[in-house]
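User: Please predict the structure of the protein below. I'd like the answer in structure-token form so I can feed it into my own downstream comparison script.

Assistant: Understood. Taking the following sequence of 506 residues as input:
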Amino acid sequence: MSDQDNQLTKKVFKGGLTIIIFSVLTSPLGYLVRMIFSRALSITDYGLIYAVLSFFGIFTIVNDLGFGYATSYFIPKYYQEKKFNLCWYLYKYDQIIEVFTSIFLSIIFILSSDFLSTYFFKHSGARELIFLFSLYLISSGLISSIQHFLVGLQKDIYYSSIEFLRLGFTLLFSFFFFIFDVSNVLYYALAFVFSYLILSLLYLILVEIKFKELKTPLKWKPELFKKAVKYALPTFLTSSLYIFINHIDVLFLTYFSKIESVGVYNIIFPIASIPILLLQPMQKMILPLVSELADNNKQKLEILMKQLLRLIPFVGIYFALFTCMFSKGIISMMFGYKWVAQADAPLKIMALAYSISLLNIYLISVVAGLGEVKKRLWASILLFVLSIVSGIFGAKYFGIIGIILANSVLFAVSAFLMYAIISKSIKVQIPFAFYFKLMLFCTATLFSWSLFKYEPISVFEVIFSGIIYTFIMTLIALKARIVDLNLLKNIFGEKFTSNRFLGKFM
């Protein structure tokens, strides 16, 4: 490997490590914000604020019309070519589009706030929140354009820290209101808005000072704009579909059910999503690893897929069983005891139903690593249609449970589609016998646990019981050879299995 290649590898690794570190640091802040909100607000107000947030969140996807993707894609090329003026033009074009569309949407939402609060949110308090979150929409547009610019320049620390600082400011303001016993939902909405406004101001100043060598008087370059748009539109379509799918559950629940249901849903969803957050670093490694193995060693890629199809479902079941057995304690510990009565049963169903989502996420990363962009686009269109049909039916007739089951169907179909795409490129088989045994084990465990009638509530009980449970599940995984360490050693190297404790089970 050349010195240039070594430098590039080090740069990529350093950048990836920075992103992972900030991801790990950011996630707890989001949970802390929710923990404060859940204790300070009523169930209705908690549901209302997240209903309005989701509504605005879905419209952030159209803020730049995909131009941000083009900004992040072309800036590195122009920067290497020392065409700094083009880098600055793209940044400003993106910013203008973001600000213009967000202002336009904000005006529409403000003018229709009475209609939306009456017929969509079905709560009079939504009107004031719409006004406040219109400011959030504009400032988030500014932040988004800055982030695209920083991503293009590969300034990992700067763009990776944005979400961390945003949640940090939100947590700070929220905690201030909380300690002064403020229970008005508008104040906690202001915590969101203030964090975005402050952050947008700070980063605008940072860009102006830190990258002043790139600054140049703005000029209209039709060819540059057309080139960016040509790249942006297909990418924008795919990403928009996935973002819409991620928000549609709350939107349908808001319209077809009670606002309290949105509150309960936003309590159980963060808990059920914990395994996804914990496994994010591993997920980020999958895409580049698959990309490398697909070009150089398909045999190792097949081994990796075989292991993923066994390991990830087992991890999903581990978290699902943990959540089911300790659900009341987890809810009480994280969000307060007042939520237990309404959230306990839906959480158990969601934990079991969403265990498949872990595998789905990893399969999507594998497909991306294989470079199957067009097939993924067609899959996303199909999932988009399915999400609308199943979401409307589920939310309208069965409320929270309906949405959970609808999403489960969506995850299952998505996993099947991703598997079908992967199987066209590499040899891989679904381990049906293993999945059947896993289902039997899950059923037997829950049945046995129900006979004890023991439900840990206190923090100590949950932690102590969780440690014992984790130890037992780890022994089961190793003894049952859920993962073949010898095979993984061939992929990742000797150091992976050098641990003496692991060596005993090989």
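That's the full token string. Confidence is low (pLDDT under 50) at residues 1-13, 494-506.
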